[in-house]
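Hi X.,

You mentioned you wanted examples for the new student's onboarding notes, showing what a folding record looks like when two proteins sit in one file. Here is a clean example. The first protein comes first, with its sequence line followed by its structure tokens.
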Amino acid sequence: MSLEVIQSILVTKIYPALLVLFFFGLTIFIHELGHFLVAKRRGMRIERFSIGFGPKIFGWTKDGVEYRVSWVPFGGYVALPQMSPMETIEGKTEASAEELPPVPPPTKSLVAVAGPLMNIALALVLAAILWGAGKPMNVATVGWVEMGSAEELAGIQPGDKIVNVNGHDIRTWTQLMEAVAFSRTPDVRLTIERAGKRREVLVESKVNERLDVKMLDIYPRNHPFAQRVLPGSAAERAGLKDGDEFVSIEGVPIYSSEQLRSLVGKRTDMPTTVKVLRRGKPLTLTVTPELSVEEKVGRMGVQLGDRLEIVRPGPNPLRQIRDVLASMVGLIKALLHSKETGVGPSSVSGPVGILGLWWYGIVTGGLLQGINIAVMLNVNFAVINLFPLPVLDGGHILFAVIEAIRRRPLNARIVQALSSAFAVLLITFMVYITLFDFKRFFGFRFGSAEPPTQTNETVPATQP
């Protein structure tokens, strides 16, 4: 194995995977640390601090608290016997609530809310870093329009900036795609800006069968590069290297991965002049695309990535938090009106989807994109945990409020039964949406094995 191959594996696979593990672990650790610190400050009994659920991988005990890392990596917990019993997912504790001094409802509420607040604090710190260094994103500028599509017939052209969708101002491609996906009708009204002038167009969105959301046949302006040159391919024989950024094909400037794929697809067995940037220096190569048996079009044999623009995200770090919250509100509204929007549980990403997008994001946008997705995850994690459902932190707060109103603790058996039932429902739901994550990312018995596109400000690998 050559040094270049080893470097490629490190950059495109191992480094992004390690960053994902670091940020995901940090998100869980910070959340549980919030519960732990407040519980300790309020004098509560703490038996266990676990990153992950299920059996222990390794751990240690200090000052009567067991610290551990467990096998199921989709969360964590702090075992507090004086809170609502959570034996279903946390395991049994040595002491029961009846054997320990009672804890007043305000203390229980403070402990429960501390976790989400720590995630919001972490999100603000990371957002401040992005505000200073810049955030990788696709601005809402069209890079490619599908030939013969309704969008092309409506007059949309590469270079057009989309500034409004159905009456809502947008700035990024993510906001554009969300506005289309969450629209209650297939018809979408776009305001486009060209040469300083604005006009409105009405186009019809179509449901992407693999992603199960409405989309348009337009693609963002970005900077496609060779994420990986496939061994034995036409691209490798022509001298293309991992990291080369595509500038033009046969003199046509390249503004989008889809544009590149379309141009290459028409040049089967035809010598093609390809201009690239390699470490900032221009280079001209001749590649002869070969017929893809599966796709029936020409392909060079390159997995594409897209380098994103680095833009200061709004006037202050709080703008990023507000944008994430607005996106969550839009998704909830779309789910509540699923018959009109077509957005359902199968459209939501679970752990596999989140980690997959995170990995792709770091491959294409580097460390800054990893931080950007960490901001989104921490805000989402905080808000979802505050839902007033047993098992979640919001459920603990709800039980504490009911206890304060009744002026006596809730029946432990009832609380345990509710917690167990919702734990089973939550696990079942996670398994359900994970199946659709496999569909989107790996074609798991559902269809194409191509990665998803346009679902985030990251653009995953495709092959031209």
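Then the second protein repeats the pattern, sequence line and then tokens:
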Amino acid sequence: MTRAGRGFTLMETVLVIVILGIVGVSLGMFIVPAVQSQQAMQDRAALVDSAETALRRMARDIRIALPNSVKVTSPASNFTLEMIPTVDGGRYCSGDADCNNSLTIAAADTVFDILGCFRNGTFTASPGSGYRLVIGDPNGGAYTGAAVITPTTTTVALTIWPGTGASPTVCGTASATANSYNRHRVTLSAPQTFPTASPRRRVFVVSTAVAYICNTATQTLTRYSGYAIGASPVTGTAALVTDKVTACSVTSLTGQVQATGLVTLSLTLGIGNEAVQLMHQAQLDNSQ
């Protein structure tokens, strides 16, 4: 047999393996860190996106909350942030020359007009639909069923007054009577005594409450909605806002929120060795 017909020797095979090993290790020293860095960047981006989305979701609910309804429990960690979202609102008549029915404060009343129209006049379409009115609530009395909010047993009906304007009558259109335009009239099924006037004559329409509960033990931030005002938040419909929560806080107490109209939120999310902390401030209107 000639030399050209022989295979590789053991020494040649070992030498090739050694060389390939050296080349592989050398390449790995450059490739592995790059891959790990890319993975870490993706993890951080995902955490930032989740945290930012969660904070913005809370801020949206805070901004439409009924004045003085934002409540904070256990602000340092594992907080419960509760509020009553407003569905609609307007300004009630109070001695205006062109108003046929003004709201009487500190006395029983069942019928009054508002200055203009509610944004969505169909919110009372279904009898017993659960919509309630709030007027002059300076300290969160709506949660306790104080007179600032109509009871759940009182239904709210809307009509358009004077009702002789355009055909069909549309709220906000020119009126054929002495009034300059058609407006919404509120009729309550039972007399209501609102004890305190609103400085800006504001009337709010509310229905149910909303709460956010942070739980670092389960690493979750959960939104509860659709539960009765004054009831426990966990009786509502739960929806996961984000997971991987390692720390959370609301640095504003309930009294501070009512005084300053500002809620400061902090959320920390982590995965593996990566962690991000985001803070967000939400401004709300606590004026009555």
